[in-house]
Amino acid sequence: MLASGTRCAASLFVLVHVVAALAGGAEEGIFTNHFLVQLHEGAGGDAHQVAAEHGFGGARKLPFGEGLFHFYPTDIHHTRRRRSLELQRRLEKDHRVKNVVQQQGFSRKKRGYRKIDDIETKLNDPLFTKQWYLVNTGQANGMPGLDLNVAEAWDLGFTGKGVTIAIMDDGIDYLHPDLVSNYNADASFDFSSNDPYPYPRYTNNWFNSHGTRCAGEVSAAANNNICGVGVAYNSKVAGIRMLDQPFMTDIIEASSISHMPQVIDIYSASWGPTDDGKTVDGPRELTLQAMADGVNKGRGGKGSIYVWASGDGGSYDDCNCDGYASSMWTISINSAINDGRTALYDESCSSTLASTFSNGRTRDPEAGVATTDLYGNCTLRHSGTSAAAPEAAGVFALALEANPNLTWRDLQHLTVLTSKRNQLHDEVHQWRRNGVGLEFNHLFGYGVLDAGSMVKMAKEWKTVPERYHCIAGSVQESHKISSEGTVTLTITTDACQGKDNFVRYLEHVQAVVTVNSTRRGDLTINMTSPMGTRSILLSRRPRDADAKVGFDKWPFMTTHTWGEDPRGSWVLEVGLVGDAPQEGVMREWTLMLHGTQSAPYIDQVVRDYQSKLAMSKKQELEGELDEALDQSLQSLLSRN
């Protein structure tokens, strides 16, 4: 767990190797000509000169540490198998240089870059009637009423005005006539070529249309007779081009996530580690620091909003193995199709908070997501969880317009309370209720986002109480695992009661686990809370044949116990399932609780409680006030 405070710049050079070691599908031995360089105090003004003297194309100051610079090459597409030891030694000998780290290359894949198989609000945009995810009247054999309920939010006057959403992707066609009026050039940047013009690089197969399509979902202008409309059609969209180079680096990711956090409100990411069902990977050290700074300092201290596509690995993968989607600092969004079922490529995991929409399963060419496309074109063929994340970013922009004071945690609470089951369904994962009555699904999270309900609640929302973190306990002894039975471990905790960091009402729960086996993909992990809520932390991944690395202090996360009382016994079940007998060792489990000490919705709870007293004057008050407040809280949560 990364400390929320700012680390000193020097500590950033103590690189975390755990995530890199776990990157089962990552490239090995790939090094770029990008360097993280720390200059001595007072030498910052010489950065460009130092870079030029050592043959670099330029230097860019990094915002997440003192004296840190990104030295980048002139040719971004050049990579090598070995470290540039000679260049590194020359830099280290320069009296102006304090530390040097060459950036290793790793893969980050666009999510949802795929084709569909063969492919009352009055707006004049020609594709609006095809945008079933906005207003679903049964188009393309869809389910009428299954949509984001944006019409209600629009009717209330909320269209995203004053909010800026950054699309972190392969660039944006900012000359597109449906985007140009809402394009925020000042908040945009190209980290692939280090200039302020994030226009997509040309390819003859339109591969770099991904970001433009996502941008249109959020901020395409309304009533201009072009394409369709964005969910937040009066919001501003910024382009952050950062995917289009041979390999990703920690510097580029961290720079993108921390770009202009006082101007950009929401960052939308439709990418992540390879969705091949065998990769375990997540953000590196600089990116973790940038995210921590974002939620603590972004938007004037209210926190940057990070929206993440949960992944396109389907039933062969588990999004809890993706350190971006499973982070507490991101809002992980899955997708549903136009008849309410899960898409075939959807991953499931306990960290998913909610869902929006992607394409339908039918061969109907209009069952995809209608949006803007490269070179002034429109498309009906956008799909995948790539399409889902920008839709969520648009809904959150509507909520931020309704209440600009919302924090990053407020938006997560609003998502939990206002998302709806609607007509979402899956044959395998059924809807369940947690210990305080909140309905959730392992695939869909707390349901599909409801823009109308969210803006109405956001208007009256008061910021949730301070957040606390409690290490609830740890099991350090090794336990052998086999295919013959399940290993069951228990941690009984008081949730740090009596201490300053007492957690009474849960938000996120992390199970930090170290385990390995003869076949990592056959591991399954489930955790049950004291209030009886069972979270599937890890499902079987049949394509993952790792026998060496396993999981090393990997933070599996669940949102399914939201609002519960964490005091009592937590039970972890670790097993091996598969076609052949396997064995392994469970080495460590640490339980981490995150939440508040007082009820997040205390004002509403007290009003409900007082109303009940007034309606039953003759009824005797039984129990203590705390117990009554708890019951009222559960009633409120269930009702919402």
TrEMBL record:
This protein's record includes keyword Transmembrane helix: no
Residue ranges that the Swiss-Prot or TrEMBL entry lists as coiled coil: none
Protein name: Neuroendocrine convertase 2
UniProt gene name: PCSK2
GO BP terms: peptide hormone processing
The organism of origin for this protein: Scleropages formosus
Keywords from the UniProt entry: Cleavage on pair of basic residues, Disulfide bond, Glycoprotein, Hydrolase, Protease, Secreted, Serine protease, Signal, Zymogen
Subcellular location, record wording: Secreted
One Pfam family cited in the UniProt record for this chain: S8_pro-domain
Family stated for the protein in its record: Belongs to the peptidase S8 family. Furin subfamily.
PROSITE patterns: P_HOMO_B, SUBTILASE, SUBTILASE_ASP, SUBTILASE_HIS, SUBTILASE_SER
Major subcellular location class: secreted
Superkingdom, natural source: Eukaryota
Function in brief: Serine endopeptidase which is involved in the processing of hormone and other protein precursors at sites comprised of pairs of basic amino acid residues. Responsible for the release of glucagon from proglucagon in pancreatic A cells.
GO cellular component: extracellular space; membrane; neuron projection
